[in-house]
Amino acid sequence: MRRGSHDMQVNVAGIRRNLKNLAHNYSDAQRKVREATSNDPWGPSSTIMAEIADLTYNVVAFSEIMQMVWKRLNDHGRNWRHVYKALVLLEYLIKTGSEKVGQQCKENIFAIQTLKDFQYLEEGKDQGQNVREKAKQLVNLLKDDERLKNERARALKAKERFAQSASGFGSDGGLDTPSSPRYPAFRGEWSTSRESSEWIIVAARSISRVRLGGQFLKTGIE
What sections of the sequence does the record tag as coiled-coil (predicted)? Predict the structure, then answer.
């Protein structure tokens, strides 16, 4: 009975999230971020995180994704999973998404640093510890340029190997800046060299500033 009740609560939460997506007219990119950082009692899937990472190479989607991520990071209390999963997603995007993600995080590192003091007790359990530890790890990564460069290169190579092993994907002709029918790809300022555009499609397949905690985030998009 307890398992059935839990599953029902999860389903209701999913329905509520979908209704909110419609009510707020969230974009596909924003919906993916909301799904990856939901209050469901499990972590974001690698598939959806990879899809979000690909979308960070699109100029409109990048802005939408980062806006939603910062919004999730600004949550608190019983929504601690929003915060924790947003940190998990952000780490993934920094390592495998557009380099613009890491640049924006460095410019707004204060927003992540404040989470090292995150507090929330749930039925006597310190759930804030998960957030504090992940925030600490992410801040340390962002402050170490050499380590960030190495981890990013390693993560991208791992994804490329996976892409090459997937049927129908991983050909040389497919390695280019990601694009989407909904979002125009970055052009001009974005290099299309192999080094800067490594990416993967997984599973066989403007907001200039965002207000956070009384301060304005620098998004680099005007």
Answer: 12-39
Long-range contact set of residues 134-139: C-beta below 8 Å, sequence gap at least 24? 134/84, 134/87, 134/88, 134/91, 135/87, 137/91, 138/87, 138/90, 138/91, 138/94, 138/105, 138/112, 139/109, 139/112, 139/113
**Any idea where the domains of the chain sit in the sequence?**
28-218
Question: Residue 127: helix, strand or coil by DSSP?
Answer: coil
Closest to 57 measured CA to CA, from 86, 93, 107: 93
pTM: 0.72
- What SS3 string covers 183-203? CCECCCCCCCCCCCCCCCCCC
Distances (CA, A) of 155 to 68, 126, 149: 24, 31, 10
Cα distance between residue 54 and residue 201, in whole Å: 7
The model's pLDDT over 110-160, given as tens digits with 9 standing for 90+, comes to 999 999 999 999 899 999 999 999 999 999 999 999 999 999 999 999 988
- Give me the CATH topology for the region 28-218: 1.25.40
Residue 37 has pLDDT above 60, yes or no: yes
